Amino acid sequence: MKISEYAKHLLLAPNLEDKLLPPSRQWEEETEFTALRIETPGRSTKFQFSDKKVKIPRLEHLGLESNRGLSLHHFANHELMAIELFAWALLAFPLAPKSIRNGFLKTIEEEQTHLKLYLQRMREFGIDFGDIPLNYIFWKQLGQFGSLESFSAVMSISFEGANLDYAQVYAQVFSYFGDQLTSDIMLTIFEDEVKHVKRGLRAFERSVPDNTNHWDHYLSLIQFPFTPRRAKGYLYLPETRSLAGMDSEFIQSLGNYEDEYTGRVNLESVKKFGLGETILRKNRLDSHSPNL
Ligand SMILES: [Fe+2]
Ligand SMILES: [Fe+2]
Q1: Mean pLDDT, rounded, for 8-35
Q2: What is one Pfam family matched by this protein (predicted)?
Q3: What is the Å distance from ligand 2's center to 79 Cα?
Q4: Domain residue limits at 230
């Protein structure tokens, strides 16, 4: 199989098993070098995009299994979109450097692992994927993906970057409620997402012009109404961005960015769950979770 055929399969085949087909270890030589921008993924009826708003359970309510299941359903949807959109990028940027394309393939494989982890745990909580409406927030950004660097700015620096904050918050809260297994899943994913942000940074950094700082370049790549707010959680954990190797001035500028949503963090839950006091790492927990 050629990489372009594989990417088309992930994008256009309708079933979840199709989206979970892992990348091959060996590829036939590529012959397709024309950029292809596929506007919508193939999805079976159960996984269609929906505009219905679904509320994510509040952190305080995650003691209930059903609420943990709903949260995981939400995260699983992000993983599915990431698989599709990294496949999309393989087709849209056929002339990207080989190292970047190989990085996309590695990311796809890891997003597939994340999706499987969520699917399995959600089912234990009685929720199957597609049971509730699926938003298409990542797919809505297609108009911004005009270049490899803008794709990386939106997908990796913004969405995957914000996920570093969220993975930490949920790992902490699931652990607070005694669900170590789900907490460990969040940390496994966190460690991979640090790598994904790193890969995105590589694509982004090679495009930063001389005499331009990373922050200004990032701002030049994203388009309103998409703002840097998408690049962080309601609780911003700058240490996670340092782990991913982000430029320190960029980390600070992102921290300083404010808009009308700033200050909406529920400080009570930050206090109650001890959020943000430390960054949890997978390797620190390994001794407690030999099964993962
Ligand atoms: Fe992921
Ligand atoms: Fe990712």
Answers
A1: 96
A2: DUF455
A3: 7
A4: 3-22+46-288
Looking at the domain assignment, is residue 100 inside a domain?
yes
**Cα 285 to middle of ligand 2, angstroms:** 21
For residue 84, report the distance from its CA to the centre of ligand 2, in Å.
Answer: 12
Quick: pLDDT tens for 203-232. Answer: 999 999 999 999 999 999 999 999 999 999
Contact 202, 103 (CB under 8 A): yes
Contact 286/76 with Cβ under 8 angstroms?
no
Q: How far apart are the CA of 79 and the centre of ligand 1, in A?
A: 5
Query: What would you report as the CA-atom Rg of the chain, rounded to the nearest whole angstrom?
Result: 19
Helices 98-124 and 180-205 cross at an angle (nearest 10°) of: 160
CA of 194 to the centre of ligand 1 (A): 10
Q: What totals of helices (H) and strands (E) does the chain contain, helices first?
A: 12, 0
Ligand index nearest the alpha carbon of residue 160: 2
Of the candidate ranges 124-128, 222-226, 234-238, 262-266, the one whose mean pLDDT is the lowest: 262-266
For residue 57, is it within any domain? yes
